[in-house]
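Hey, sorry to bother you again with one of my protein questions. A protein chain has come my way and I'm curious about its shape. It would help a lot if you went through both lines with me. I owe you a coffee for this, so here goes:
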Amino acid sequence: MKRRSILAATLELGHVPAILCATAIANGAVLNNPRTLSSEAKAAYERKDFATFVAKMKEALALRPTHQTHLYNLAVGYALTGHDADALELLPEAASIGYTYPGMEKDPDWQNLRGNSEFEAVSQRLAANAAPVARSATALTIHQKGIVSEGLAYDPETGTFFIGSVYARKILAVDKTGVVQDFSVREDGLWSVLGLKADVRRRALWACTSAQPQ
């Protein structure tokens, strides 16, 4: 495989080649970091500077529009600054995605909205999202610790599942008999493995890999 500056690396389904990892930089400058914005928002919240808390969370949410914590924190910020309508607009969005927020019913930040019919209704929707739903059967079991899997792909031609590890920086292959083996490892140049996609026609596995604190 030729080395190119790309955000996704490909692995041939039949063997383990070298992988090139790359970072995304726009015009030579690193993009705003949602984690930094979130940390700055937390500091503002702790000193009760709720206007800055809202401003920072709005920036963070703009970068990651469906992030569970960003949605909740911005809704909290709106509630704390008297923008109840804005808070009640965000919470249904979180509920529709399927999020849930344990302990929300006791969170003092929502004190001013308790008793509001819209707030109570969406709180119930969020709580209901925590109810377990089981419609599946076990497909495979991996007896390895510290995998922290995220990406999953399937090759129908060989009946092989591919599982990416965020923590161990590798990709596992599980064949149709249940045998587990390393398909690609950190020495190939992997960072945390996120999304995976089997390209059956080209006999390739696409892997998104990124540096993570984990």
About this structure: DSSP finds five helices and seven strands in the chain. Residues 116 and 178 are 53 Å apart (CA to CA). The chain has a mean pLDDT of 86. Residues 50-63 form the longest helix (14 residues).
